[in-house]
Design a protein that fits this description.
Length: about 180
């Protein structure tokens, strides 16, 4: 008789555990994913991703990608035909690469750092139409590789932004880096 009571209590406890587990799963499925940032419809920069329907939204998401070293967010900023252009001062020429090389290079930079901070300063040029915009903006980038190896880069980033008609957002088509590094 005592064994039967123990078994019944054990079954009741197991049933209660399953009910709690089911309720927990139901509750969690109704919540937003706490590990994925939320896109905003407004251009408020409070650490969340912006929808990129505005030029400022592109810059907000760019900063987010650098600060949080997030290559997925960074990749979503770049047009499939993206080109990065930089000055090779040793050779005295401009060099460039495409989207795949840019994402790989940025991924490696993100992996090699302990932290990064990007400050966008004034927009110097903003010309174009509703499909293509040329935007030049000054910036200050701090890269911390370790406490004794901190690099500060100041410069101007010249962007050509393209309106992605299918996804209704701005994307970076080209970036010419004019930094002091």
């Amino acid at each position: 008789m005592e064994n039967r009571n123990i078994i019944n209590k054990s079954n009741k406890i197991s049933s209660i555990k399953y009910i709690y587990l089911a309720l927990l799963i139901l509750f969690l499925s109704a919540c937003e994913n706490p590990f994925a940032p939320k896109y905003l419809d407004s251009p408020i920069n409070n650490g969340l991703l912006n929808s990129q329907t505005t030029i400022e939204g592109v810059f907000d998401n760019f900063r987010y990608a650098y600060v949080f070293r997030d290559t997925l967010v960074y990749g979503n900023l770049l047009d499939p035909d993206f080109t990065f252009i930089f000055r090779n001062y040793d050779k005295g020429i401009d060099e460039s690469w495409g989207r795949d090389q840019e994402i790989l290079t940025t991924y490696r930079m993100f992996q090699a750092t302990q932290s990064m901070d990007l400050i966008w300063n004034d927009i110097l040029i903003n010309v174009g139409d509703t499909l293509i915009r040329d935007v030049s903006r000054s910036f200050a980038l701090t890269i911390v590789f370790n406490p004794s190896d901190i690099v500060r880069i100041n410069g101007i980033a010249n962007f050509r932004l393209k309106w992605d008609v299918e996804k209704s957002r701005w994307r970076i088509l080209a970036w010419r880096d004019e930094s002091n590094y």
